[in-house]
Amino acid sequence: MQAINRLYTRVYHTLDVRSPQRLPDSGPAILICNHTSSLDPHLIQACCPRLITWMMAKEYYELPVLNTLLRILGVIPVTRSGRDMSATRAALRALENGQILGVFPEGKIETTRNLLPFQTGAAMMAMKSGVPVFPAYLDGTQRGREMVPALLLPQHATIAFGPQVVLNRASADRDGLLRATAAMQSAVELLRQ
Asked: Would you say 30 and 126 are in contact if contact means Cβ atoms under 8 Å apart?
């Protein structure tokens, strides 16, 4: 499946890698990225040798055509309304099992080049698990397109990966969580610039 995805993203679509991924060869990590379209997980996965366990909006996860494939890939469905503790527990289990967890902290697709405010979920999981966090930034013609056109029409995308985000893990209270979230957003913003 990885080979098919690489052909799909690098031959059918065009993907320019501005700076290579820096994920660890083994062990858990969280990969955070801005969210431009439904094509994003495919583009990011094409650059990474390890399988990424993605968190995905439950309404897409439950589409009959995609559900079986998403279950095989270990995608974690997330309810958008409020806090989804079952999704958080599943994500923390994935990290405990040494997996790479892929998160779009904006929580939805942004149609402009600006970043939406990051939600605190990724920071909370990073603080709770103690795993490293790595940023990425995507841009391209896929931005803001509906699911089917983004996936089926040829797109031209660029991606940049950054170094590990330095988090102050001394305080896991609300202020510490907000500082960690701000550090994550700054790391992605730096790649955007």
From this structure: yes
Range of the domain at 116: 2-192
Q: Is 11 helix (H, G, I), strand (E, B) or coil?
A: helix
Tokens 């939600």 correspond to: 119
The predicted-structure confidence for 72-87, as pLDDT tens digits, reads as follows 778 788 887 667 788 8
Residue 119 has which token pair?
A: 């939600």
The CATH number that applies at residue 61 is 3.40.1130.10
Q: How many beta carbons lie within 10 A of that of residue 90, not counting itself?
A: 18
- pTM reported for the whole predicted model: 0.92
Domains in the chain: how many in total? 1
The H-or-E segment that residue 107 falls in is none
Question: With bands split at pLDDT 50, 70 and 90, how would you rate the model's confidence at 95?
Answer: very high
Strands (E), the chain: 14-19, 29-33, 52-57, 76-78, 100-103, 133-140, 156-161
